[in-house]
Amino acid sequence: MAWDLDALIEKAQRRELLPENTIRELCNKAKELLLSEDNVRHVQAPVTVVGDVHGQFYDVLEIFRIGGQCPDTNYVFLGDYVDRGYYSVETITLLLCLKVRYPDRVTLVRGNHECRAVTQVYGFYNECCEKYKGGLVWSYFTDVFDYLVLAVVISDTILCIHGGLSPSLHTLDQIRVIDRFREIPHDGPMADLVWSDPQQVDGDEISGFTLSPRGAGYIFGEDVTRHFLEINGFGHICRAHQLCMEGYQILFDDMLSTVWSAPNYCYRVGNMASLLEIGPGLERYFNVFAACPDDQRTSDPQGGEVSFKALVQELLMEEDERKSKDFQKSYDSYSQNVALDVQDTGIVTNFRTSKTLSQYFI
Ligand SMILES: [Mn+2]
């Protein structure tokens, strides 16, 4: 079959699964392309920044309807494309097709879910196995994840990352020299970029870094953020990674903002989502949207409404789950899968199998 990317994009937009061989070819092309991108990618405004989408395919289609289609709009996606939602496979397929077709108009940053260990717990691995019979397609996608960039700088002024800052990273140059072509490590600067969170406590400012209750990354406050911006000559940090009921959140006297792009998260939280549209003069506008109307999604299972509190509880339980035996099991099989990867695809994944679970997340 001739390689017709536009036809593949149309298929992907209709939520059709592409053949396994096509996925392999798509992933190889994506890796080839991403290999030439630096850890820190520079793009010029105007640009639209998208936060977590987590496999909510129909909401991704809605994002393109609201924000403009490729290549008319220049997009930076901040990671967490997979897990949780029902259509991680279709979502990452579409985004990779668009990346390969319009490499200069689509930038894909790595999130903490673009990771073998995490995708085995939160849905993507199982979804790949169900939709493609066997884990090969999952290994193709997760190999591409190792190539995704870590940060974007918009017009030399706005730093975009998935999670947050790191006590090991003071300058942009230190992000540039990270060896990123590997699984996300358990700790260190690369892990912090995808796992950390800002925190604002009224009247009681957090100073420096404290370990994150997520079990990876850090929590950081206004002082750390101001310091990083000053040292590097930036005006703002834009990141994703945290659910915002209003679709976005602005912190630290407008030095940092969170953009969240999965409306009605997990089909039941009832939250809004947003796109951050950055204009030619670097003006920032959060384009807020709700979940895509039901008549425009074909077969999402109908989830019942649950309270935000209940979801938080569920998420906290999942934090514990990471430390549980189940996770240990998936982590072990993950190591085996990496070995399989090397064998089956000829791609060497730089992963230290000697790490134990507790070293990985705690
Ligand atoms: Mn995240």
UniProtKB/TrEMBL annotation:
UniProt cross-references to PANTHER family, sorted A to Z: SERINE/THREONINE-PROTEIN PHOSPHATASE PP2A-RELATED (PTHR45619)
The keyword Manganese belongs to this UniProt entry's keyword annotation: yes
InterPro entries registered for this protein in UniProt: Calcineurin-like_PHP, Metallo-depent_PP-like, PPA2-like, Ser/Thr-sp_prot-phosphatase
SUPFAM superfamilies in alphabetical order: Metallo-dependent phosphatases
EC number: 3.1.3.16
The reaction(s) this protein catalyses: O-phospho-L-threonyl-[protein] + H2O = L-threonyl-[protein] + phosphate
The family this protein is said to belong to: Belongs to the PPP phosphatase family.
Encoding gene per record: PPG1
Source organism, top-level taxon: Eukaryota
Organism of origin: Polyrhizophydium stewartii
Record-given protein name: Serine/threonine-protein phosphatase
Ranges where the Serine/threonine specific protein phosphatases domain occurs: 109-114
Record PROSITE patterns: SER_THR_PHOSPHATASE
Source species taxonomy: Eukaryota, Fungi, Fungi incertae sedis, Chytridiomycota, Chytridiomycota incertae sedis
Protein keywords: Hydrolase, Manganese, Metal-binding
